[in-house]
Design a protein that fits this description.
346 residues, alpha+beta, Creatine Amidinohydrolase, Chain A, domain 1, Creatine Amidinohydrolase, six-stranded mixed β-sheet, elongated
């Protein structure tokens, strides 16, 4: 659940950051022969729009129109009474409010585009049918602009790295709040969530594997459970639209340094990214990064059919299941440039 006040911190995300990102987007649009870009956002798909203009919805849906020149336009289904807040958190000069964003976005495009124009939609197949049909009715050529968006975003920037480092710090401190000697799974989850939100995370999702000897899956806790001799929790936190994951495994009476060995093994694998050879020696592994509308997309992993290329210095969240001396250890953290942003050591 998205909680707390979402504000635009112009210290952490100055307007110049968005000017640079929009310029990169327009360069990618020109290369793909796209005249205007449309990015859709809702509660579960906030990432593309927030990268371009900072806006993160608590609820409802919006469409951002990025022309090849000139001001951006945000078409929002939020009530006009939310206008002051949206104006304070959105890098867009034109804000329009309507209960049906599809027809209004289509109207904006029809008035602005010449005949024969091409509209690129980020993740076209994922936008709601009502929005997609309205865009189709504009009369322009409609294409998927996901590749262009990914190209524009791929190089990253210092602002995103700084926010990810803060979010990683939140995740680490939240997982450090676990009472390693405790036996109540609900208490452990509550401690992580409370710590993350108290630190300033705008979102916190906690998953748990209460007994790794019985089941290594990280799931949402649905009721009381006891913590076993080895258990793990994963904290997924967001700060200013930037998301990271971190995993902590607790092994009681870990006299052999099992968790430390697994952490070192993951660090060695991360040092070789984007090469995946060392990660592939894990029992299970996953690499995620922010690409388009989803906060984190799986780009490679033992359960990902086809690995997608990502730059050597990309900001990624990496997870793995590693067996040391017969004990399963789940370990994970965000990394960049071959090293942890914040090491998952506790």
């Amino acid at each position: 659940m998205r909680r707390g006040l979402i504000e635009w911190s112009k210290t952490e995300l100055p307007e110049s950051v968005f000017d640079t990102r929009i310029a990169a987007m327009r360069q990618a649009m020109a290369a793909a022969k796209i005249d205007t870009l449309v990015a859709y956002t809702n509660f579960t798909r906030p990432s593309a729009v927030s990268w371009l203009c900072d806006f993160i919805p608590y609820w409802s849906e919006c469409a951002l129109v990025v022309p090849k020149a000139g001001a951006l336009t945000m078409v929002s289904a939020v009530s006009p009474r939310g206008k002051p807040w949206i104006e304070s958190t959105t890098y867009s000069e034109n804000l329009l409010f309507t209960p049906k964003i599809g027809p209004e976005t289509a109207r904006v495009l029809k008035e602005a585009l010449p005949s024969g124009a091409t509209i690129g939609v980020v993740e076209l197949d994922e936008v709601p049918a009502a929005v997609g049909l309205a865009l189709k009715g504009v009369g322009a050529t409609l294409v998927d602009a996901t590749d262009a968006f990914v190209t524009a975003r791929a190089s990253g920037d210092a602002a995103a790295t700084a926010l990810a480092t803060i979010a990683a710090g939140f995740a680490h401190k939240a997982l450090a709040a676990i009472d390693a000697n405790g036996t109540d799974a609900m208490a452990a989850v509550a401690a992580v969530d409370l710590a993350a939100r108290s630190l300033g995370a705008e979102e916190s999702y906690v998953a748990i594997a209460p007994d790794l000897r019985a089941d290594r899956r990280l799931l949402r806790l649905e009721g009381p459970a006891k913590l076993g001799a080895a258990y793990a929790l994963r904290a997924t936190v967001a700060y200013k639209g930037t998301w990271v994951r971190m995993i902590r495994t607790v092994v009681r009476n870990d006299t052999g340094g099992i968790v430390q060995k697994a952490t070192a093994q993951l660090a060695a694998a991360i040092a070789e990214l984007p090469k995946l050879d060392k990660l592939r020696t894990s029992d299970w592994w996953l690499v995620e990064t922010a690409r388009a509308a989803q906060p984190l997309d799986a780009v490679a992993g033992s359960a990902v059919p086809t690995a997608e290329a990502f730059p050597a210095g990309a900001l990624v969240s990496v997870q793995a299941s590693i067996t040391i001396d017969g004990t399963t250890v789940l370990i994970g953290a965000p990394s960049m440039g071959g090293a942890f942003l914040v090491a998952p050591s506790f």
